[in-house]
Known about the structure:
Layout: E1 2-3, H1 14-24, H2 36-56, E2 63-66, H3 69-84, E3 88-92, H4 97-105, E4 112-116, H5 126-132, E5 137-141, H6 155-165, E6 168-172, H7 184-187, E7 191-195, E8 206-210, H8 236-274, E9 279-280, E10 291-295, H9 301-306, E11 311-312, H10 328-332, H11 337-341, E12 343-347, H12 354-371
Parallel strand pairs: 1-11, 3-4, 3-5, 5-6, 6-7
Antiparallel strand pairs: 2-8, 7-8, 9-10, 10-12
Helix pairs in contact: 1-8, 2-8, 3-4, 8-12
Amino acid sequence: MIYLDNLGTTQLDPRVRAAMDAVLDFGPGNPHAAHGFGWKAAEAVDEARRAIATMIGARASEIVFTSGATEANNLAIKGVASARGPGRIVVSAIEHPCVLNSAAALEPQGFERRIVGVDSEGRIDVAELEAALTDNTALVSVMLANNEIGTIEPLAEIAGLCRARGIAFHTDAVQAAGRMAIDVGALGVDLLSLSAHKFYGPLGIGILYARQGTKLQPILHGGAQQGGLRAGTVSAPLVVGMGAAARIAVEELPLQINHLAELTDSLYEHLRGAVRGLVLNGPAEGRLPGCLNVSVPGVDAEQWLLACPGLAASTGSACASGGMRPSHVLEAIGLSAELSAASVRLSVGRFTTHEDVEEAGRLLVEGVRQVVPDAVSVSA
């Protein structure tokens, strides 16, 4: 089976697994406990926290561990809202559902969710966003890189607009980790969310970066762990796994960027040369490395992938699968319902090989041939 759903989740790197196994061998390691086992676990957690902070150019004290990006995004949006009081929350039209729905969930409490549109390549309309900023705007949340079409947003420009008005600025940077450099200072964000399983770490662990001085209230209540911002015992093995994944991501980033871009370009050129009318969804240039979203007119995406039994890919973001409604991201960029239904997201990763891409290209072309024979060139 060829795995091309790395934007959904990545394979756990064996080096990460080894780091986690070492922590599991510590014995009962509650990092909040005041004894030898707890101190050893706490030391490992602190080391991982520093590694994650280094990956994004932050201070270790600004890292809050969560169960994943969904919780981190909820903490950012609801935590800022709770600290600042009712006002406007501005988000882009192509945010992950956990961002859009977190903002919507605050409306009964007197908050207003304002959704800003994007262009045909998924780039946010900065002028529209600026016009949406008012004296009572509490938060702006715009993702760094889109999870379906790979669009990279102009965060530094947006950050300048927010900073001038004293508005907190959050970004969901989940897809960017391990695929592009992330520097919270250069981006100008106050809050940033990551999830380990998107960059070859374990499932069930993520972080929220909260710039020192950012007003934030907890959304979980219990003990006083993590400065009172996130109650609950921190899982040392999961945190260490995320720390190991972060170190590897930093060390291998230039190599990974080239690897992902080369494989994606190769796959796209193969499909474009063999499939008539192939449509690229999202930007042709400056796209997140490793992300390819395409449509074939007249081809139902689910039937297409069913005709490729040796391939694991996605018809859209995993959180949107199973529903009959077209992807909100593809709708936002103006794609027709027909092309949305014909959309397949193909995402290569660290462990994808050139041979994998060659075979995937063959399977995808043959799959199109089975569903709509006339869509494939005779020479393919």
